[in-house]
Prior knowledge:
The structure holds two protein chains of two kinds. By secondary structure, chain A is mainly α. Chain A has helices at 3-11, 16-23, 27-34, 42-52, 56-60, 65-72. Chain A has six helices and no strands. In chain A, helix 2 packs across helix 3 (27-34). Chain A is elongated. The two termini of chain A are 25 Å apart. By secondary structure, chain B is an all-alpha fold. Helices cover 83% and strands 0% of the residues of chain B. Chain B contains 16 helices and no strands. Chain B has helices at residues 4-34, 44-64, 70-102, 107-130, 137-142, 147-164, 167-171, 176-212, 221-250, 254-269, 271-291, 296-330, 333-368, 373-394, 399-421, 430-437. In chain B, helix 1 (4-34) packs across helix 2 (44-64), helix 9 (221-250) runs antiparallel to helix 10 and helix 11 (271-291) packs antiparallel against helix 12. The longest helix of chain B is centred in the middle third of the chain and has 37 residues, at 176-212. The two termini of chain B are 22 Å apart. Classes of the chains: A mainly alpha, B mainly alpha. The A-B interface holds A 16-17, 21, 23-29, 31-32, 35, 38, 40-41, 43-44, 47 and B 1-6, 132-134, 137, 141, 208-209, 212, 437-439.
Amino acid sequence: MNNQMKSKRVYLNLSQADLAKKIGVSRQTIVLIESEKYNPSLKLCLAICHELNATLDELFWKESADERRKNIE
Amino acid sequence: MKDERILSELNKTKLVIIYYLLFSSALLAAFKLLLGLEGLSNYLVEIFIFSASGLVLLIKITLSFYGRDERIESLFAIIGNTFFSIILFGGLFIHFASNAYGNTQNYIQYNLTSNFILIGIIVLISQLKRRNIYLHASLFLRFDSKYILIIFKRILFFALIMSINILPYIYFKNDLLIGILNVFISWLSLSITYLFFSIYEKNHYEETEMSAEEKYRGLSKNARLLYIPILAFQFLSLLFNAVFNISISQNPSTENVMQLTIIRMFIQLYGIDIAIISLLMYIVIKRHLRRINFSNKLINLLTVYMISSFVISIVSIITSVVFPIFIQLYNDISILTIFYKVNSFVSITFFIYTNTLLFAIIYQLYKIGVSDMNYLYFYAGVPVISTIVLQLGLSYENTFSIIVATILSITGFLCLYIFMKRKEDFVIDNRLLEENLNY
């Protein structure tokens, strides 16, 4: 689950349908991105970031196992 | 911005359809060979579709040697898209050209093609559903209220393309009137199929969006939509039955009887399409009931009923179409005796089986509670009467058909009635609701 994207969307009080309409995609596409069942292209990622006022790192960066271990230490 | 997910999933769906066409063209050609159809003009469409779709498969295999590469994948998507259009429109044009040249189309050939088209539509629907996309998604999003108008405009555009198909008839100097009629019938059947598919998609989309807002319909609109061709088939057959009986009583010559019997066989063969549509209708009802957390027992009974009614319909068509062909081919009275014996055995077995199932369903319905009889008259009464009259006329030698068709109609429409009646009383399970929200 892409919790960063979902929490940012909820924080901005946007429904999945609202966000989908703003970007020009279907609601199902937003559902599938949030549930990590679809990997969006860089172009779509940027459009989502733009609408949610966030950076790519904030919404889509995934920590590698090494980074996660380092952060925990 | 175009929805890239929909575009990429649509390309994958088109590819599956191309592979289906590769397989079905080979199968259709094999069937034609078995039916003893000779002459290259009868196989032109199959050869064209098989070569074009085979070429796509070859390209796919060749490109797979380069490993997974985003750029190559997008190149292949363009190739697949182009070939899809070529196969679709090219196949249609060659179909009419070969028809105009050879003019040897027969009823069974038409019927087989129609069966394959219907199965193709079901493959398309299942692929779209599996990939969480709609063929007309962009239209729903952009032109919600004008959607049907756009679909009708497209159908008119098909008519324009179809009119080009009359040209081969003029070129080959064949009967222009037959050509126009041929083209018109094809356009009409394709347009009706496309219209139904478009409404089906829109209904499905609306119901998915409704479930996301915790709203549910008592019965899926698509179940009612799919019931239209079933009812239309019953009434058209009834009409033919009347013409058949009047014509035979006025002109009992062998030639007239033979001609009408062939048309009757043609209509009965369309029963295969109707059986497939009925199966699809029950799948729609079942999925809808599961979504709204309906009684599990009734859903399970409906599944058993759904599968058995499909099998019974197919067996019924085979006994009333294939057996008479054998009798005619071998001209042997002993085959007729075997036919009646097999028919009686099958009748009794299925009668007991469907009756048991019917009582089980009725018991479940009784537990839920039936009260409003008005709906029952409309949904069960009219189709049952038409079915009985139709079967009495069409298969007067086949008592089995009358019994089975009556039982199937009564049970099916009782179920439909109950599902509609219960629309206010559904209990929505929160766990199921969350699952629904994921799509």
